[in-house]
Write a structure and sequence with these properties.
mainly alpha, 9 helices
Length: 131
């Protein structure tokens, strides 16, 4: 498990996607910093066929899906992503918190709502809090 963060930091590696999937299945807290850094890249699908429900479940974003699978230990890193200048990255962070679904994740969304400036991300936060 110690090698997972190193493998995740090397996206050109043939085992990169496998390392990310394994980190999620094992809920590998050690991988959180590397996954947070990987969020700076565009989303990479976790599943071949994407539906609207699949987007909400993060099937279109393996890195975000893995952070959601790790759960509450990933929340501080995801909250950092909510502070990004990039609205797309903030939207991904909202979906991660929505998929974590814990009281702590919900609290992070509630805390972000009054500070969110992008109307689409704000709408996503509101919808996430309703679900």
């Amino acid at each position: 498990m110690q090698k997972l963060p190193e493998l995740i930091r090397r996206p050109q590696s043939d085992v990169w996607l496998d390392a990310i999937r394994i980190a999620g299945r094992l809920k590998a807290k050690e991988a959180i910093p590397a996954l947070q850094k990987a969020m700076s890249r565009p989303p990479i699908p976790a599943e071949p066929n994407i539906t609207f429900a699949g987007i909400t479940r993060l099937d279109n974003d393996i890195v975000a899906k893995t952070l959601a699978q790790i759960g509450d230990p990933a929340i501080p890193s995801v909250v950092d992503l909510l502070k990004s200048a990039n609205a797309g990255r903030r939207g991904r962070a909202v979906l991660i918190l929505r998929n974590i679904g814990s009281p702590a994740a919900r609290k992070a969304l509630e805390n972000r709502l009054p500070h969110e400036t992008d109307p689409e991300v704000k709408k996503l936060i509101r919808n996430s809090l309703l679900s």
